[in-house]
Amino acid sequence: MISKINWKAFLLPLILGIAIWLLTPFKPTDINTAAWHLFAIFVATIVACITKPLPMMATTLIGITIATLSGIFTMDEVTAGFGNSTAWMVAMCMFMAAGFIKSGLGKRIAYLFVKLFGKHTLGLAYALSAVDTVLAIGIPSNNARVNGIMYPIIDNLSHEMGSDPKKGTQRKLGSFLIFNEYEINNVTSGLFLTGLAGNMVALGLAKTQGITVSWLQWFAAASVPGILSLLVIPFVLYKVYPPEVKETPNAHAWADARLKEIGKMTLSEKIMLTTFVLAIGLWLVGTKLGIDATEVSFIAVVILLITGVLTTKDMLKESFAWNILVWLSVIMLMSQKLMTLGFFPWFSKTLGNALHGMSWLFVLIILFLAYFYLHYMFPSVSTQISALYAGFLSVAIGAGVPHTLAALMLAFCGSIYLSTTPYSAGPAALLSGTGYVSNKEWWQLSALIGVIFNVIWLGGGLLWTKVIGLW
Length: 471
What we know:
The chain is an all-alpha fold. The protein is 73% helix and 0% strand. The chain has 22 helices and no strands. The chain has helices at 11-22, 33-51, 56-69, 75-81, 85-103, 105-117, 121-136, 142-160, 174-191, 197-207, 215-240, 250-262, 267-285, 293-306, 312-317, 319-340, 343-354, 360-373, 381-398, 403-416, 426-432, 439-467. Helix 2 (33-51) runs antiparallel to helix 19 (381-398). The longest helix is centred in the C-terminal third of the chain and has 29 residues, at 439-467. The mean pLDDT is 88.
């Protein structure tokens, strides 16, 4: 049986790619023909990732094949590109996430936090926020955290407290907790480099422009705006979108009952916890020991495989991990080649000259806000990062923004812009469709939280990065 293909979705990428290719005689003299042709293929590939005639993995494979047939790449270069360390780190972290869910450790952590801090509704929101924060250190999939762990727990807890969309009682508790989880998940996605696959995609693209950022550098820069957001968001939502139930004394008993159901920690949970703690430690100090972040993720997965917490069958089932390994490797290979051929340096220099006389700080603020609000047009995290990050970073560098600061600020934006719409990413699509929060409420609350995020991450983030010496 032949799979259905959306052939119409090929039209725009083809038109743009062919048009740019045909403009080769009129290209800037500073750019060679190979760089211009790759730019045409790159644009067509990125646009196809947005229009989606095929999944991103298939689209990028088509793009790199065309580039190879055009003589821009050799097959040796292409196959070597699949050894990209960033792409492999993302895949390995996805396998770690599977270990969290399979072992049951994620749910146990959630039940423990609810039991300890769930007597009051606001305290319950902070407890659930803390759970997502802990999980985000080692689970780079916001979908896995929300869909696999957090939503089932919040939904069950809400029903236990008499809050059910089907009965019209969602505002009792569930609405507040669901939207809080949505926004907190966006915060935790940006707090850690390993909190979101898109973070590693962004820094992988930054690396092609000569900028390297470690796990610890990311956390140091994100810590203050991240922690501020974790403190502010539940409180703001509690005030502007208050739950009807203010006290949740039954939450303790509910969580305790769930913990008794799952029993004592299993051996697989203990191994998962030990591996998780080891990975955190190595991410923090590994560079001093000569162990980079990708190697840490490999070590963790190997431990899980040797001990039987994960199996090769479990890994093969993680289609998203293998999918991202392919398309991210291709996108980064193209981006690296555009750098080598001189396209990005030319782009950066040209725009830098055009912005001559404008403060680099002002340019960075404009780029950050534009990057944030452009997510209204994108239903995917990685698609926007793949489409815009490298270009926005080049503009920032050309305007004189300190390189590491530019890479980090735009990467942070790639997490918090998930607060924009009910289609911003997988968690938004799931949670907005549960019935706990109406469509109108979703848009209104997202707009408000988006402003707060920009104040904290852009305003506060710039002040904090000044304190730690990034500019």
